[in-house]
Design brief:
The complex is a heterotrimer. By secondary structure, chain A is mostly helical. Chain A is 70% helix and 4% strand. In chain A, the strands form three sheets. A two-stranded antiparallel ribbon of chain A has the order 1-6. Chain A is globular and about 65 Å long. Chain B folds into two domains: 184 residues, 3-Layer(aba) Sandwich (Rossmann fold), CATH 3.40.50.300; 258 residues, 3-Layer(aba) Sandwich (Rossmann fold), CATH 3.40.50.300. Helices cover 34% and strands 24% of the residues of chain B. Chain B is an alpha/beta fold. By secondary structure, chain C is mostly helical. Chain C has one domain. Chain C contains 16 helices and seven strands. The chains are: A mainly alpha, B alpha/beta, C mainly alpha. Chains in contact: A-B, A-C, B-C. Chains A and C meet through helix 6, helix 12 and helix 14 of A and helix 7, helix 13, helix 15 and helix 16 of C.
Chain lengths: 340, 507, 362
């Protein structure tokens, strides 16, 4: 009749993740302090580089909570970038194009969500088709790489290059110039998305029903939740967040090309898993995924700063982390089952 | 409608393809009573409950609920909830990854002015609900942190808080220990005193007599009777549940008891158990002997067999097969020792639905031989033909998918699967369930024939009469424990008395 | 009457879907050739053409389909078994192909060498090494799925993202070229026939023999359909699931060698890219349920070639390599939607309604 334990496995997983990030980052600071790793800007650069990924990881967390998956997000981003680039090249304004991208995301997500929620098809298969579709459509829109220059659209260009200065944490470089740390607009967007999704998951009916569906879909249905609709809306939300991520991504790369954001879905999935989201659904939160993204970013950053390590190390390290976390998750699950 | 009746069902009839699951069943539930619904496998308990809760669409009959004019017909559990019928199942239908409070309120959360969930409000209300019911929990903790008993009670609290007049508890105590069961009973009595009508489905006789006020018994989809608890002693209850259809079948000679099996032991179990399902037991089976295991559903009769066969690996104890100590970790080990088991749940553990009759029949022999010693097609066909003929399986052909066969013929195919392996010891768990009378007799004759050939058989059935006809000895199971072993004076009465136990027991 | 029974027989054997789709693709080709004024049977024309390096070789669109579809067909064999036994897919096969190619080339060239014309180890060592690497990857996946009970997609996600990178690491971040004629053999010609076609045929024959001459096929299906009943009947469900993953990895290794031999190099970033998707699609198109259970190897292989035929046809129609996935997506969606429960029951209802109507009319 007593409570079984105070700190449950999921909290432990999240703490491990945060701890791992701190250790990694501290390790980077110690090893590469002389290369500027200790500067605030290094951390901010991780945020800037990964702003799009943060949005996508939030989206994936949402579908993974319902025990779903979405592997179409990388391709959707490529399509978004290409739409933005080609659309603005043909003279359409930045704002209408961004709205169009969001609308496309909604439509695309609705279709995928319908197939998954109402037709009951495995999310992996549906979103695999979605991935094919988006990659192919990117090429249908334009097969070449299209860059977005100042001449093509000034608003977008300025938005991309806008620096938001941070009033502290600067340093004086070798030439004696004070470097003010800064972030980009995309970071603000990504952090806003993060906070909003966090609040949504915690304080709205929809947010809680996502957890219920992932925890036990049959029970959720018995308790009167519309499981089909919830699944569909989760996938819609994921595609919309991926589209927002796509805009952020485009603001970073300022180009559209067929091979853009290749494999980004796997980065997002591994971030979420490392952040403590269970692929079996029902457990996880976006802050964990945020730290997952940061861990991946830190690894890349360390490998880049080192300069001598092979470029494939970030992928391998991420996969090793993924392996460790998946095995830990399965052990936790086994222990829980045995207790029953 | 009677004064304090909350629910009546009259003449409920329901057919599944090929089976009449319920025929003209009546049920009456009064305010503030705990009403046991009893019956063996296939009696129609769960079908009746599904009719009440809107999961099954019954064909004929009417359900009336106090305060509602005209007959009620539910089409979903939601409908049922809206007329005040809530159900709590053995498998708790809650979300373990959410907090206790959320589980109480999901789908009907109190909202703040900003259209967000008012966590404070529902945590407070949840705490009050749980405190009022005398359940001490911290409602902000995740449900999975609590024992199954607490989860069960949370499910009940949710049902009660949704204004239920009828609370259905479907096997709620199966996974609880004694202390937890006692707590659950306290809660049940409290709710009864508040005027809730409770339908309690269980297979533990002890619990029925501890907590219930009234019993309704079903058998083979028929209404047997409704009795106040005081008027139905255990033996009568067991008799009502199991029936006395001695005359259904042609009488099979009982001479087998005389040719008393050889003195050589085939199986000798000492202190064998499986944690949580069957307590340590001893059992000897001689060569050429048919031993029956009698007990109610859930008494551990199947679990005893599973522990011997390694379907559930034994937690304690030793097993000797043919005089040698055996180590059985999984079924294949038992098979190599000459065992075979026909499991009671044909669909879940017997048939491989999408494979053909031929493949289903040779599967066990093939598994025994090993992957790289495949039986030639010709050999397979020869064996399958032989056993189709021997068992008189009615199938369009050897390549027909087994799922297209009737239940009885499926059972014969599975029986054939084991006979092909030429076992020395065969466990038959409810081999005649859901099978027509003619086939039943065939199977019983076959059992005697196998015994005459020197094979040993452990026969489990919920029909005492068919065990009486075939077995020379019977082990009696009650509440997961082997309580008795009868080898002479095997009669319907003596066996039922032993099964019922309780005040009828001289011990 | 006989026509109907043939139809029935096809439907029963589960080959209806793949064969109909293959015929459809062929029909599109014929129509296209008629419209553009070519010989209507251009698609099926096979001619002997003289090449300087290989002498007279077979040439034609259908040969091209068979040749280019080899890797997908080889992968589809393993994928069919994995889907059948575990009701899940192995999404790592494309990456594993790449890893095997890299490992093979690394062995042949020696570590750190980016281009070589003399082999560091005998050819057979390199090739077997590559294939064994595939089996090793399969062992890893199989252990996670069968013994740790991790969902197949999740378990194979690890190698999906790591295998390619490990390959790059083995090749020291280089594209390793093997400029030795003997290695190119696997991707060129055996007599007049493209070697990949021969290799695929050998793989298919060996696998069918294994399935026919051992009880493996029945074991896999049995475990896929009802693992509990299989266990009671004496099968070791976990071991069987494990074996299917090892086999799947092994075939990924073979496919990797073929793909690498075609370009006589180990291009980690591009070998096997998206091929896991083709393999999964081939299984689905082959009429196999992705929910596991009964499988039909022939269907998967026809499915793989159908996909290649679609791709080849699209190229012939002037669709670019990068645009072709749009059509694949539409096909996947149509197939899975048709197989989905709600659509099926809707169709059944309609059919019943129709027969009832007809019955009423008569």
């Amino acid at each position: 009749m007593k409570k079984r334990n105070g700190l449950n496995g999921h909290t432990i997983l999240l703490l491990i993740t945060i701890g791992l990030f701190i250790v990694l980052y501290a390790g980077g600071c110690i090893a590469y302090g002389s290369n500027g790793f200790t500067h605030l800007q290094t951390f901010l650069n991780i945020l800037i580089t990964n702003a799009g990924l943060i949005c996508v990881a939030c989206g994936l967390t949402v579908v993974m909570l319902t025990a779903g998956i979405d592997i179409s997000v990388g391709a959707l981003i490529a399509m978004d970038c290409m739409m933005l680039a080609v659309g603005m090249r043909s003279g359409i304004g930045a704002v209408p194009m961004m709205l169009l991208v969001l609308l496309t995301g909604i439509a695309f997500g609705t279709f995928q969500g319908f197939m998954i929620g109402y037709l009951g098809i495995q999310p992996f298969i549906v979103t695999m088709a979605g991935m094919f579709f988006c990659r192919g459509m990117t090429a249908v829109i334009c097969t070449d790489q299209v860059s977005i220059t100042k001449e093509i659209n000034e608003t977008f260009y300025n938005l991309a290059n806008m620096k938001i200065n941070i009033p502290f944490g600067g340093y004086t470089n070798k030439k004696g110039m004070y470097m003010t740390p800064y972030i980009r607009v995309t970071v603000v967007v990504a952090l806003l998305v993060l906070v909003i999704v966090y609040l949504m998951l915690r304080y709205t009916k929809f947010g809680r029903s996502l957890y219920a569906v992932g925890g036990n879909a049959q029970s959720a249905a018995m308790m009167g939740l519309n499981v089909k609709s919830i699944r569909m809306r989760a996938h819609m939300l994921c595609s919309v967040l991926a589209s927002i991520g796509g805009i952020c991504y485009c603001l970073n790369t300022m180009a559209g090309s067929v091979s853009q954001a290749l494999g980004l879905e796997m980065d997002a999935i591994s971030s979420a898993v490392i952040g403590g989201t269970l692929l079996t659904g029902g457990v996880g939160n976006v802050f964990g995924s945020f730290f997952g993204v940061l861990i991946n970013g830190t690894i890349s950053s360390i490998v880049k700063t080192n300069g001598k390590l092979a470029s494939s190390w970030p992928n391998i390290l991420t996969a090793i982390l993924l392996f460790v976390f998946i095995v830990i998750q399965s052990i936790f699950a086994a222990v829980r089952n045995r207790r029953k | 409608m009677e004064e304090n009746v909350v629910l009546t069902a009259r003449g409920i009839t329901m057919t599944f393809p090929g089976v009449r699951a319920l025929e003209n069943v009546d049920f009456t539930l009064r305010r503030g009573e705990i009403h046991a619904l009893m019956g063996e496998n296939g009696a129609g308990k769960s079908t009746l409950i599904k009719c009440l809760t809107g999961i099954n669409d019954f064909e004929a009959g009417e359900i009336h609920i106090a305060g509602i004019d005209g007959p009620v017909k539910n089409h979903s559990t939601r409908d049922a909830q809206s007329v005040g019928i809530s159900t709590v199942y053995q498998e708790v239908n809650l979300c373990p990854n959410l907090s206790v409070a959320e589980n109480l309120f999901i789908g009907r959360e109190p909202m703040t002015a900003f259209h967000t969930i008012d966590r404070k409000a529902y945590n407070k209300r949840s705490q009050k609900i749980m405190d009022d019911l005398g359940i001490s929990v911290d409602v902000t903790q995740n449900l999975e942190n609590y024992s199954l008993a607490i989860q069960q009670m949370v499910a009940i609290a949710r049902a009660v808080d949704m204004d239920c007049k009828v609370l259905i508890l479907d096997e709620p105590t199966s996974s609880l220990d004694d202390e937890e069961v006692e707590k659950l009973f306290v809660l049940m009595r409290r709710l009864r005193d508040q005027g809730v009508g409770i339908i309690f489905v269980t297979h533990f006789l002890e619990q029925v007599y501890t907590v219930c006020d009234r019993i309704t018994v079903l058998r083979d989809g028929h209404f047997v009777g409704e009795y106040p608890i005081a008027e139905l002693p255990r033996v009568k209850l067991v008799a009502a549940m199991m029936g006395k259809n001695l005359d259904d079948l042609e009488e099979i000679g009982k001479d087998h008891t005389d040719n008393a099996a050889s003195k050589e032991l085939e199986i000798s179990a000492r202190g064998l158990s499986h944690t949580g399902t069957v307590k340590p037991f001893d059992l000897d089976i001689h060569k050429g002997e048919v031993v029956g295991v009698a007990g109610l559903l859930g008494s551990g009769r199947s679990e005893l067999a599973r522990a011997i066969y390694g379907a559930d690996k034994a937690s304690t104890g030793t097993l000797q097969v043919d005089g040698k100590t055996a180590k059985i970790n999984q079924p294949i080990d038992a098979m190599h020792l000459g065992m075979g088991m026909l499991p009671d749940d044909r669909k879940a553990e017997g048939i491989i639905g999408d494979l053909s009759v031929r493949e289903n029949m040779i599967l066990a022999l093939q598994a025994k031989q090993g992957m790289f010693k495949p039986l030639s097609r010709a050999k397979q066909e020869e064996l399958v033909d032989e056993y189709i003929k021997l068992l008189q399986v009615k199938t369009a052909g050897k390549e027909t998918l087994i799922k297209q066969l009737s239940g009885g013929n499926q059972q014969k195919v599975i029986l054939g699967r084991w006979l092909i392996t030429q076992p020395d010891f065969l466990i038959l768990d409810e081999p005649t369930r859901g099978i027509d009378v003619g086939t039943k007799a065939e199977i019983q004759k076959l059992i005697l024939k196998l015994a005459a050939e020197g094979k040993s058989i452990l026969f489990i059935s919920s029909e005492i009469s068919e065990m009486l006809r075939t077995c020379s000895r019977m082990a009696i199971m009650r509440d997961g424990e082997k309580v008795d072993e009868l080898d002479h004076d095997l009669t319907q009465e003596s066996v039922m008395k032993a099964i019922a136990g309780g005040e009828q027991n001289n011990d | 009457m006989t026509k109907k029974s043939l139809w029935r027989r096809l439907a029963d054997s589960g080959l209806l879907l793949p064969i109909v789709s293959l015929l459809l693709v062929m029909a599109v080709n014929i129509v296209f050739d008629i419209v553009s004024g070519n010989n209507p049977f251009n698609f099926f024309m096979v001619t002997l053409q003289h090449t300087t390096s290989n002498g007279n070789v077979l040439y034609g669109r259908i040969i091209d389909v068979l040749n280019r579809g080899s890797e997908a067909a080889i992968l589809a064999i393993g994928m069919t078994l994995v889907v059948s036994s575990s009701a899940g897919t192995d999404i790592s096969v494309g990456s594993v192909m790449s890893l095997c190619a890299s490992f093979c080339c690394m062995l042949l060239a020696g570590y750190g060498v980016s281009s070589t014309s003399t082999l560091a180890v005998p050819l057979i060592v390199g090739v077997l090494g590559g294939i064994l690497m595939g089996a090793l990857c399969g062992t890893f996946n199989g252990t996670l799925v069968a013994y740790f009970g991790i969902q197949p997609m999740v378990a194979t996600l690890i190698l999906y993202s790591a295998a390619r990178a490990i390959g790059l690491l083995l090749c020291n971040d280089l594209i390793v070229y093997i400029r030795n004629g003997s290695f190119a053999f696997f991707g060129s010609f055996l007599g007049p026939i493209p070697t990949p076609i021969v290799i695929t045929a050998v793989c298919i024959v060996v696998m069918s023999l294994l399935l026919r001459k051992s009880a493996l096929g029945m074991y896999i299906q049995s475990v896929g359909i009802n693992p509990r009943a299989s266990r009671i009947s004496g099968l070791n469900s976990r071991r069987i699931i494990f074996i299917t993953y090892v086999i799947c990895g092994l075939f990924a290794g073979i496919a990797g060698i073929v793909a690498s031999s075609r370009i006589t190099s180990a291009d980690s970033n591009n070998i096997g890219l998206y091929l896991e998707m083709d393999a999964i699609l081939a299984v689905a198109l082959g009429g196999n349920s992705l929910g596991g259970g009964r499988f039909n190897l022939a269907g998967s292989i026809i499915g793989a070639y159908t996909i290649q035929a679609i791709t080849t046809t699209l190229y012939a129609l002037g669709v670019s390599t990068t645009q072709a996935p749009v059509f694949k997506a539409v096909i996947v969606i149509l197939i899975v939607a048709m197989q989905s429960e709600p659509v099926k029951s809707y169709m059944k209802k309609r059919r019943l309604a129709r027969t009832a109507k007809e019955g009423g009319a008569v």
